[in-house]
């Protein structure tokens, strides 16, 4: 099967990046600092700035408190071993559960069999960020430079997982987001919502390799940034691989993004670009290459320049041009109730598109496409 072939075959990950990712040493050779259980958290909060080889073994983080690993010394290694637990807080809170920010040359790794458990099942109500109590975001990665995150497994995240912002030259490798238990009927007040796996903003030279994601929202959402690569990944159950929504933020430029050699299965969308109605910005040089779609429920490929929640049926606007949109070997199926391709462009704002080897079948052909540019179809 093509799906299995793509998942089990090793591919080279190409990149739009102008500089290679710099990988810090895999493991710090200094004497390790061990922190375990509930007492380990108290000790860690007093010593994390002085340790450069931190091992967290079955750590129990107090409810409603961030595991703060900010401002670590350059070259520090943080290793997760066993189960790191973030308990439920009945009154809710916004998080993050874990923050590793404002440092450089870090290695953050999860050992085989380790996990970071977010107690999401106690928060899920089908409402996500609109629920009666706030839900914590999981993993804040801000202003991290020349660093690696690898082998980390997230289980039962309450809401958004990785918030990557203001980072440069960051490698995320072999990460798993397992939120399968959050599947549920939102209308019945069940299940996780707004459970984005990777939200990326204001960052450059970010590469995500070999991610395995089971969630209920965007697998990846690039809201701003340059030279971003996602490859050899699996995205299941969510909203696919997305650019945007772009517009209405302090930074509204997305440039040089590559999604490659990945599978999007049982998801609402496959490849998606969405820009906000009546805003300004730029989306440029976006490539989806060797992407397999499987059982997509809504849109196999969708470009929408009318995004304006909560308003529906707003007209597309041209303040955020989408130029240089390339699809190569994007294939697979949409369910009969879905739509294969939908393009909804503003006046003159979609240009220089090049689609080759695109074969998306099984769903409906849209009759509502607008201003489809040369080099593409609907």
From TrEMBL:
Enzyme class per UniProt: hydrolase
N-terminal signal peptide: 1-19
SMART domains hit by this protein: PbH1
Any one of the GO CC terms: extracellular region
GO molecular function: polygalacturonase activity
Record's catalysed reaction(s): (1,4-alpha-D-galacturonosyl)n+m + H2O = (1,4-alpha-D-galacturonosyl)n + (1,4-alpha-D-galacturonosyl)m
Record-level GO BP terms: cell wall organization; pectin catabolic process
Annotated catalytic residues: 239
Alphabetical UniProt keywords: Cell wall biogenesis/degradation, Disulfide bond, Glycosidase, Hydrolase, Repeat, Secreted, Signal, Zymogen
Subcellular location: Secreted
Domain of life of the source: Eukaryota
EC number per UniProt: 3.2.1.15
Entry-linked Pfam families: Glyco_hydro_28
Main location: secreted
UniProt similarity note: Belongs to the glycosyl hydrolase 28 family.
Name of the featured protein: endo-polygalacturonase
The organism of origin for this protein: Sordaria brevicollis
Taxonomic lineage from the root: Eukaryota, Fungi, Dikarya, Ascomycota, Pezizomycotina
